[in-house]
Prior knowledge:
The protein has one domain. Helix content is 26%, strand content 29%. The protein has helices at 22-25, 29-44; strands spanning 9-16, 48-53, 66-73. It has a three-stranded antiparallel beta sheet, covered by helices on one side. The longest helix is centred in the middle third of the chain and has 16 residues, at 29-44. The chain is elongated and about 60 Å long. The model is unreliable at 22-27 (pLDDT under 50).
Amino acid sequence: MSTVSRRTYEYKFVRLGENRASALFGPQTKARNAYQQVVHEHARDGWRLVEIFAPGVAAFGAAKYYELIFERETAAD
């Protein structure tokens, strides 16, 4: 008889670039470039990048902010 291992995950949402100006012009260059550092920092803690979500559209078609979605497996009970 085989035992099925059930994996569970937890998720973390990190928002970058949201401020008053981003509503009009999108995230500033600093926020657009910071995502790589954020991904590396979370990877060291066992998180895996799942998606970069850019909801809402500011002026000129830019995203208002970026939301990085991370997941990691939770410890088995």
